[in-house]
Write a structure and sequence with these properties.
Chain lengths: 140, 140
C-alpha cells in the first residue's frame, strides 16, 4: 500500500531543479551543506530549506559531524514514485492498444457497410475495458 | 536532451493527489470538467486550477464540446519523468554496489592484518567511481 503522503513529498522534491541537483550530487557521495550550497550561488538559508524538504521526504539523511552537517543520499523512497508512474504507463498503454484494436475493427466493419468512397465515421474515444485490470493502482 | 521545465511541471503535477486522481480517471476515457469535479467535492474553480496545471505540463488536453469542456489524457510527458528516475536509480545502485565491493575487500584486508577477534574498522563512505558512468544524466 503506497502512502499518498510519500508520493506527494517525493514528487514535490523532484519538481525542483535545485533539489534534483542535490540528489545527483549526493549520488557521488556525502557532502556538507556548504559543499552543496557553493556551486548553486544560493544562500545557506535557501539551501537549508531545500534540504529540509528532501529530508522530510526521506530522500536524504543529515547528521552533525564536528561543526558541519553532512548530507547523504537515501534513494529508497524513489521506488514508490517510479512504481506509480510505471504502473499507470503500462495500464494506459494497454488501454490505448485495446482502443486501437476496437477502432480498427469498428472502422473496418463500418467501411464494409458504407458506400464505397465514404469516410469512416469518427468514433468517440471510449473506455477500453480490460478484465485483467482491476483499475486499482498502487494506492490510488 | 530533457527540458528541465518539463521535469519541473510533470513532477509538480504528480505531487498532488487530486491531479494524480484526474490522470487516473482520464485513463478510463475523456471526461468533462463537471464529471472530474463531482466525485472530489471540490468547487469547479478549484478543479479548473488543477486542470490548468495539468494542461500546462502537457499531461491533458482540453477542448470545448458544445457547452462542456472535455479533458483527455496525454501521458507522453510522463516518459521523461520516468526516464529521469530510472536513470539515477540505476546509476546510484551501481555506485552503491561498487562501494559494497570496496568495503568488503578493504574489510577483508584489514581483518587479515588485525589481531583475531578485533572488529574491522569502519570505513568512511567514499565515492565509488565507475569509469562507465560519465556522471551526466538525462539533462542535468
Amino acid at each position: 500500500m503506497v502512502q499518498q503522503d510519500t508520493l506527494d513529498r517525493v514528487f514535490a522534491c523532484l519538481a525542483d531543479p535545485v533539489r534534483r541537483g542535490v540528489l545527483i550530487r549526493l549520488g557521488d557521495g556525502p557532502a556538507s551543506v556548504g559543499e552543496l550550497t557553493e556551486p548553486t550561488g544560493m544562500t545557506l538559508t535557501g539551501m537549508t530549506k531545500h534540504l529540509r524538504v528532501l529530508e522530510e521526504a526521506g530522500l536524504i539523511v543529515t547528521e552533525k559531524v564536528g561543526r558541519a552537517r553532512l548530507c547523504r543520499l537515501a534513494p529508497a523512497p524513489l521506488d514508490e514514485a517510479m512504481a506509480w508512474i510505471a504502473f499507470y504507463q503500462r495500464l494506459w498503454a494497454r488501454r490505448l492498444d485495446g482502443l486501437d484494436v476496437f477502432l480498427t475493427l469498428r472502422g473496418g466493419a463500418r467501411q464494409q457497410e458504407a458506400p464505397p468512397g465514404s469516410t469512416p465515421p469518427q468514433e468517440p474515444r471510449q473506455r477500453a475495458t480490460n478484465p485483467s485490470d482491476d483499475g486499482k493502482g498502487p494506492g490510488e
